[in-house]
Amino acid sequence: MERLNALGAEFLHVEDGTVHMHLGAACVFDGRPPSLDEIEALTASKLERIPRYRQRVRSVPLELGRPVWADDPHFDLGYHLRSVAVPAPGDDAAFCRLMGRIMSQPLDRERPLWETWLVDGLEGDHWALIFKIHHCMVDGIAGVQLLTVMLDQSAEFSIGEPQLWEPRVEPPGLLKVLDAWGGLASDVLTTIRGLPGAVTHPVDFTRSTLEDGEGAVRLLRRLAPTSPLSIEGSIGSHRSWSHSTASLADVKTIRSAFGGTVNDVVLSAVAGAYRELLFERGDDADSSVVRSLVPASTRHDDSHGMLDNQVSALLCELPVHISDPVERLEAVREQMVKLKASHISDAGEMITTIGNLAPPMVVGPVSRMAIRLMHRFGQRSLNTVTTNVPGPQFPLFCLGREMLEYRPFVPISHGVRVGTAILSYNGKLFFGFTGDFDTMPDVGVLATAVSADIDELRDRALTLLRTEGTDPARTGRAG
Question: Quick one: pLDDT at residue 463?
Answer without folding.
Answer: 94
